[in-house]
């Protein structure tokens, strides 16, 4: 894990952030640091020093589908995704 992570939003490292038509955020209370999201979408997610998922500035390099797959892969469903109309994509 790198200390100088390039975060999409340094004020809110776990989001919410807007990625194209998606709004993505991690619930830090739910996150258990399993790093499944990092394995699925390494351009989007990394773990911080507290083993909580944070969103990287390279998030745009992962496809929407990859980001959604990463959310689905989270064992505790700590990653939330909404579309531009604020409809919940995951978790339903």
Task: Write a structural description.
By secondary structure, the chain is an alpha+beta fold. It has helices at 36-40, 64-73, and strands at 17-19, 22-26, 45-47, 53-55, 79-82, 88-90. The chain has a single domain (17-85), classed as 2-Layer Sandwich (Alpha-Beta Plaits), CATH 3.30.70.20. The protein is built from 2 helices and 6 strands; from the N terminus they run E-E-H-E-E-H-E-E. A 4-stranded antiparallel sheet has the order 1-2-5-6. Strands 3-4 form a two-stranded antiparallel sheet. The longest helix is centred in the last third of the chain and has 10 residues, at 64-73.
Output the keywords.
globular; 92 residues; 16% helix; alpha+beta; Alpha-Beta Plaits
Write down the domain tally.
1
CATH class: Alpha Beta
Strand content: 15-25%
* Mean pLDDT metric: 94
Describe the biggest sheet? 4 strands, antiparallel
- The general outline is globular
Number of helical elements: 2
Number of strands: 6
Quickly give the structural class: alpha+beta
In the sheet with the most strands, the strands line up as: 1-2-5-6
Over the alpha carbons, how many angstroms does the gyration radius reach?
12 Å
Instruction: Tell me which CATH architecture applies here.
Output: 2-Layer Sandwich
């Amino acid at each position: 894990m790198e200390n100088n992570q390039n975060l999409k939003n340094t004020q809110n490292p776990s989001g919410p952030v807007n990625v194209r038509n998606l709004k993505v955020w991690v619930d830090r209370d739910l996150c258990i640091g399993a790093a499944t999201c990092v394995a699925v979408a390494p351009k989007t997610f990394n773990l911080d020093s507290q083993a909580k998922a944070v969103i990287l500035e390279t998030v745009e390099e992962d496809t929407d589908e990859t980001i959604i797959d990463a959310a689905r892969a989270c064992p505790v469903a700590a990653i939330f995704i909404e579309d531009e109309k604020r409809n919940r994509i995951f978790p339903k």
